[in-house]
Amino acid sequence: MRCVIADDHPLFRNALTALLSDSGLATSVAAVADVAALHAHIEAEGAPELLLLDLHMPGTSGFSALGWYTGAYPGNPVVMISANTHPDTVRRAIDLGAAAFLSKSTSTGTIGDCLERVLAGERGLHPELTIATEGTGLGTLDTAEAVGTLTPQQFRVVVMLAEGLLNKQIAWELGVKEATVKAHMTEIFRKLGVHSRTQAVLALGTLNVPEPETLTQPPDSA
């Protein structure tokens, strides 16, 4: 089983890598620090059979990376991991396609057990966490579904658009011509069902979540 850990905190990535390797849950474990690296890994190696995805990491906007991955690879489970464990955050992650949601302060034993259950086909897991009773709004679900149809390059464009970058700045960041960015914008607007940059930003904003107030320590690898 191939697994990718997408998290921008080296200590946490290393702890999860050790857990997966030592437990025998994965035959191959790769780690990436941002969404661009995740896209590059998938392009080179194919989509992993299990993705451990940090909620707050560079190159994403809230649940947009979750929406993109579950839309592009619906049969490959995603386990969200975050220090932000508010019941509404947990509920939205599950509603948007996460197979499970784990706190970054969860013990290694609980993490290992949860991953085994996910690999066995269980879904909607949130060990030791409270989940909100009110479901995610249809607008958010529709946006996540639309984001799932974006190409990796279109995804990077729309995230940079949400960050307030102009077309020429996006072109410079991606190393492409401004005309190429405009072409991506046209497709992004069509897929999101919007007609302007402002509408696109507002749509993507429905996937946003508050940043966690504090970061927990990495799981104990012992």
UniProtKB/TrEMBL annotation:
PROSITE patterns: HTH_LUXR_2, RESPONSE_REGULATORY. SUPFAM superfamilies: C-terminal effector domain of the bipartite response regulators, CheY-like. Gene3D superfamilies: 3.40.50.2300. SMART domains: HTH_LUXR, REC. GO terms for biological process: phosphorelay signal transduction system; regulation of DNA-templated transcription. Residues 2-119 form the Response regulatory domain. One of its GO terms (molecular function) is DNA binding. Keywords: DNA-binding, Phosphoprotein. InterPro entries: CheY-like_superfamily, EvgA-like, NreC/VraR/RcsB-like_REC, Sig_transdc_resp-reg_C-effctor, Sig_transdc_resp-reg_receiver, Tscrpt_reg_LuxR_C. The modification 4-aspartylphosphate is found at residue 54. Residues 143-208 form the HTH luxR-type domain. PANTHER family: HTH-TYPE TRANSCRIPTIONAL REGULATOR YHJB-RELATED. This is Transcriptional regulator, LuxR family. The lineage of its organism: Bacteria, Pseudomonadati, Pseudomonadota, Gammaproteobacteria, Cellvibrionales.
